[in-house]
Amino acid sequence: xxxxxPGTGERSELxxxxxxxxxxxxxxxxxxxxxxxxxxxxxxxxxxxxxxSFAEDVVFLRYAGLRPVIVHGGxxxxxxxxxxxxxxxxxxxxxxxxxxxxxxxxxxxLTGQVQRDVVGLVNRHGPFAVGxxxxxxxxxxxxxxxxVVDGEPVDIGQVGEIVxxxxxxxxxxxxxxxxxxxxxxxxxxxxxxxxxxxDTAAAALAVALDAAKLVVLTDVEGLYADWPDSDDVIGSLTxxxxxxxxxxxxxxxxxxxxxxxxxxxxxxxxxxxxxxxVPHSLLLEIFTDEGIGTMVLPSPLGASVLEExx
Length: 310
Fold this sequence. Notes:
globular, 11 helices, alpha/beta, eight-stranded mixed beta sheet, about 40% helix, 14 strands
């Protein structure tokens, strides 16, 4: 029996798929063999369909010749676990106050639950993902970080700021064709274990790996131009423009945009904040001309991006 020839409508759909693949060719060429660090968290991590979509996107990047690295948070899961254990969860200047009791829960949830879930989802598509903590092979070394409230430092417990990154183990995994999945827990030279903001950890790792991109998945469309008075998203801005905006950003968005600023000023060519609630947002950003979300670029010597597009 001969195969059935596709009808006109089906042919049009197939042609559309082919055109999409061809349009991705320049980006495939540009990023082949390059490292992309992805910060994964928020609702994209808790909704079942989006979790599977994210895993598919990461495996697609791997098959397309990129070297993806995942750095994950786990805020919603940590909140639930702290509540189950009767431990209060409070935030100061956007950072979780982390007592020794809370740190035990944070460490357990990030490395024992969330990381294993991400690794398992990716490995449904092949033996790619390998989980590691920032403690492993001294990947992240941290020092105690204080929140700043009204210009004064405030002790918030076992919250760390990364002071050193040793990427040998991550590079070895990438060279072996693996996808590292990193939880944002770090150890200090004092032997203390620290909770590190995952956005900050992703930025530090992107710089240390000479990544081509840092992509931060979040729960909003990007950086709003005039929130809450407008829902217009800033498509792109320079590091200087972002630095000027940082003091006025919300406690939730500030760490993400500060991570982008740190990464680009540290040599990463592009950093992006994307809406992780959009299926395949990762692929839309990397492989299309239009992209989505907000992109942070190095500041040019002359006019700013906003001036040039005005």
